[in-house]
Specification:
Two copies of one chain form a homodimer.
Chain A (H helix, E strand, L loop, with lengths): L2 H10 L4 E6 L5 H14 L6 E4 L5 H16 L5 E6 L5 H13 L4 E5 L20 H12 L4 E6 L10 H13 L4 E6 L3 H13 L6 E5 L5 H10 L6 H10 L3 H21 L4 E5 L5 H9 L6 H4 L18 E2 L6 H7 L32 H8 L5 H13 L20 H9 L3 E6 L2 E5 L13 E4 L1 E7 L4 H8 L5 E6 L5 E3 L7 E7 L6 E6 L1 H19 L7 H12 L1 E7 L8 H7 L9
Parallel strand pairs in A: 1-2, 1-8, 2-3, 3-4, 4-5, 5-6, 6-7, 7-8, 9-17
Antiparallel strand pairs in A: 10-13, 11-12, 12-16, 13-18, 14-15, 14-18, 16-17
Helix pairs in contact in A: 5-6, 9-10, 10-11, 15-16, 18-19
């Protein structure tokens, strides 16, 4: 979707909106962390996100990848930056084609940096001189497909003297076909408001989105504003003077400055904000909270998981629960599906899940992994790691990159008990009975609705513990299970042709929405990955090492099982009785 | 489905089963009453029903119609009787073709009555002499399509001396291709058990279903058993002697006799029962209750409404609520649909509802209608009739052939209040919050599930009362409505492209099942019928009469509205506040 349409709608409804700008991190670990952050900041309800651009094989590919992943995995519309200087026409052509292929529909067209030391740029034949050339080129080649935004410079591009000339350049960029202006950062609201007025007077009608960069620390702020010749009101310098050595105090003051600026902009009829996040999370979040811009749950959580943004996936409203902590893998495995289940699993009952070609990746490898997980040499060591993860003492396991979700807080102790008893849990959700759809933890979907969850537990279990467990299951008619081993021998106690809805919502004037299911076909696809995580982990340790052999053995011999408690009305779960009731008895590991 | 398959399954599971035999009534009113009865007796869980046959234009057409309606409207597998004497080959050929066209898959092949006074039958060229000829013919023409049952005569067809010969005839009928034996009625269980043994000895392996006719009154019983030379144990005569003048006592004794017979048969390994109901309901029901053959809700109520039995409709699992009291009309209007909504309204969102060609029929016409509804000459008179219907003082209104459903008992007084306030209600359901799926009133679907309903109310409202009502609606965000006038001007307060699920169930190992919806397209089709009932009613009165003009005026001017309370958790309904809260105020009729 074009972000300008989202902006015009928000403007029409006089509804404040905001966007977040990120830059591609330099390390793989940084990229993984950024994805986590983007995923969390989704809940702050940005209208879209920006990702900056640097030319050069990996750099620009990474921008493309982050934009594409933001859309498919995190359901966030991406505005991809693209510069036109210092690069060839051919590369630009290719980058635009790849962007379109990846479903990216928004480009921020920039001139880019000049060659070192230059103040004027002399392009070669076939190269672009100005951002307006890039705008024209995109419009010519792609018609209306892309929403094009361009940069605005409230304090002039290079110097304050350029302001009037820059407004003319901006007008040219708009006339060349740009839809939207995103401005350089500033700290003087009066100056900005005046500049906007001058733009309007010059005939620029496109939406203008002010760039706000929360102050993060004194030295950085001083260096940056000096370098970019950005005017900072004296009051800000005065206030910073006393606290400049206290980073936390500076950050907090930065939040206050931004809040005041946004309020003042709003008083002047400017209701949008573009945050230069510097890939940081806290300041932006605090500012939005301070402003009481509490995101509207309906707007940001139409379903309990983030929907992909792509035409192909737009009808996807049901997913299996198994990949809940591995959404990227799910998107990848199902990338080639022709259609997605809509409302019910129905016709896509046997979707051809793509093969797991390259195996799974674990986040921590080498030294980091050793530091986190040590060198387990017995099942008890492994069990201890799972227990520690549930207790929050380690932040990650191969199956779960992030700590337990807030919704699982209430079952943290129970989960700890399961793992202590030798049931190594890798996925779970507590039951929810008719929580309001605007509940901050459990809620999703339109207002005045009610949401539900059946308790779900997925775990590895030792082969010697399985028979007694299955026997016990027979006494609990409200429990349904699927259990499989690495070879794929599946056993269950319900009609596996039928999916089990484990998350659903009831809303005014709507059919029941059931976005999460437990289902045998997808479980069989998931189990390949679930077992592969053992092997990926084992490769942290040298061949023939005790740890490696241990993890391989578990992968070969243990069963992967999931249990659903279908009675979501019961306050205490039968699953607990079943698993913890037998702690002292038959478990053998 | 072939009834023999259902029987063999029940036999394999050693699960008692029963079937009901009806005959086509002579009057139209009788047919209407029989349908009501068949609908109610559905809840007694018969494995199938039989409908007897008499040749002759209307008679045999009526048998076909009752069989076909039982399957499509009441979801009951029908076993259609067919005789082969006294009729032409051509008629038989046509009747079988029509039966197949109508989805009837079970035929009871009989010889039929002989011409008056004959004891032997001499067919003309091309006619059938014996039932076995008919069996052979059906098998030859239709292969395996039909399940064919044949009659067995435990006491001989014409006289006790024929028994052995009749067993040979029976063997011939089975050898000719019959699947199943349904026996003539009897009262001597020992005799029957012995006869079954002789049948088995003669090589008859097909299931044998004993015919039981509960004694209804002394004289009828005596006449019938004399005429048919049926042996009645002396004990029964002795017991009847003292009570023969007390019909109720005889009926009760008849129940006891049948219960004892069925128990004794069961002790001898015979677990099926074919009830000759004589189109009566109470005895059969009492016998089944006495035997503790409480129907398994799962088996008989997979959905809250009876599913049609036809290949075409087999995937139909969602229906609009509007035709709840007019299922036959719904089946007729949708008879030509290519596919039926399955699980969600989805792709059938704009199904082409057939036109309402002949207008609606009301059950009571002429004298009966006048007796029931009198001659209303004011809106208050009409209102009084609706109030009386809710109070149970009159049994029927044009829109509702039968009294309020048991599930509506709890809202009877509220409904009365609505009608007194001038909101003429024609359909409603109270809300249900997580009732167990085996609840005797609200339950449906598999065990260990929970079922839900949103409160629903549909009513006619005077044009002068509508504006205030719509204004009030704005204060109630949990209410959604659709309102339309005769011309078809539709207004609503929700996205009418989306259906509202008003009945749903959550079950172990399954997706959410949502069998009843409120939806705009179908509401527009239904409103034609809803308004037509006013006109059908008006035609009870002479042209130019006050009553006729009144009902026509209401039909022309009043609005048809439905309201859903989407908060099904609230114990008291906002609809009540809305409608009854304004009784003394703004309503004007």
């Amino acid at each position: 979707m074009k972000i300008v349409d989202k902006i015009l709608k928000a403007e029409e409804e006089n509804r404040p909106y905001w966007s977040f700008e990120y830059f591609p991190p330099k390390t793989q670990q940084g990229v993984v962390n950024l994805y986590d952050r983007i995923g969390r900041m989704y809940n702050l309800g940005p209208l879209f996100i920006d990702v900056t651009w640097r030319w050069g094989g990996k750099s620009s590919d990474l921008t493309l990848e982050i934009c594409s992943t933001s859309q498919s995995v995190y359901g966030l519309e991406a505005n991809m930056h693209m510069t036109c200087t210092n690069t060839s026409f051919k590369l630009i052509k290719r980058a635009l084609a790849v962007a379109k292929e990846n479903g990216i529909q928004n480009i921020l067209a920039l001139r880019g940096d000049l060659p070192d030391g230059s103040t004027e740029f002399d392009p070669e034949e076939g190269e672009f001189r100005y951002a307006s050339d890039l705008v024209k080129y995109i419009r010519k080649q792609y018609g209306d497909y892309f929403c094009i935004s361009v940069a605005g410079y409230p304090e002039g591009c290079s110097s304050p003297d350029d302001v009037e000339k820059d407004i003319q350049y901006l007008k040219e960029k708009i006339d060349a076909g740009a839809d939207l202006v995103v401005t350089q950062l500033f700290y003087d609201v009066d100056l900005f408001v005046d500049w906007v007025k001058r733009c309007r007077d010059a005939g620029i009608k496109a939406p203008i989105l002010p760039g706000i960069m929360p102050i993060q620390n004194y030295n950085g702020f001083k260096r940056m504003t000096d370098l970019c010749r950005i005017k900072v009101p004296q009051e800000i310098w005065d206030n910073l003077e006393d606290i400049k050595d206290d980073d936390q105090a500076v950050k907090n003051y930065g939040i206050k400055v931004a809040v005041d600026m946004i309020k003042k902009l709003r008083a002047n009829g400017i209701i949008g904000t573009h945050f230069y996040t510097l890939n940081l999370e806290r300041s932006t979040q605090m500012i939005l909270e301070e402003l009481n811009y509490i995101p509207d749950l309906e707007a940001i959580r139409p379903l309990p998981w983030a929907q992909s943004i792509s035409d192909k996936r737009s009808r996807e409203t049901v997913r299996p629960i198994f990949w809940r902590n591995q959404t990227k893998n799910y998107i990848a495995r199902t990338a080639n599906w022709d259609e997605f289940p809509n409302g019910r699993w129905g016709d896509a009952r046997s979707p051809a899940y793509g093969e797991l070609i390259h195996g799974v990746q674990i986040r921590f490898t080498g030294e980091n992994a050793l530091k986190l997980w040590g060198t387990p040499t017995s099942v008890d060591d492994v069990k201890d790691l799972f227990v520690k993860y549930c207790q929050g003492k380690i932040s990650s396991l191969p199956w779960s990159d992030t700590p337990l979700l807030p919704e699982s807080e209430e079952i943290r102790e129970t989960l700890t008990g399961f793992n202590r008893a030798g049931f190594l849990t890798i996925n779970s959700q507590p039951s929810t009975n008719s929580a309001p759809s605007n509940d901050p933890v459990h809620g999703w979907g339109p207002p005045n609705g009610f949401v539900y969850k059946k308790a779900y537990l997925e775990f590895f279990v030792a082969p010697e513990a399985l028979p007694a467990l299955l026997e016990q299951m027979e006494n609990h008619p409200t429990l349904t299970y699927l259990v499989v081993n690495k070879k794929g021998n599946l056993k269950s106690n319900f009609d596996t042709g039928s999916p089990n809805a484990v998350t659903w919502g009831v809303f005014p004037g709507k059919e029941i929405i059931q976005p999460t299911i437990v289902e045998a076909t997808s479980f069989m696809a998931w189990k390949d990955e679930a077992y592969d995580f053992w092997l990926a982990w084992s490769r942290v340790y040298p061949q023939e090492s005790e740890s490696r052999k241990l993890l391989e053995k578990i992968s070969d011999e243990w069963y992967l099982m999931n249990i659903v408690e279908n009675n979501y009305l019961k306050p205490t779960s039968t699953i607990s009785q079943l698993l913890i009731g037998k702690t002292n008895g038959t478990t053998t590991n």
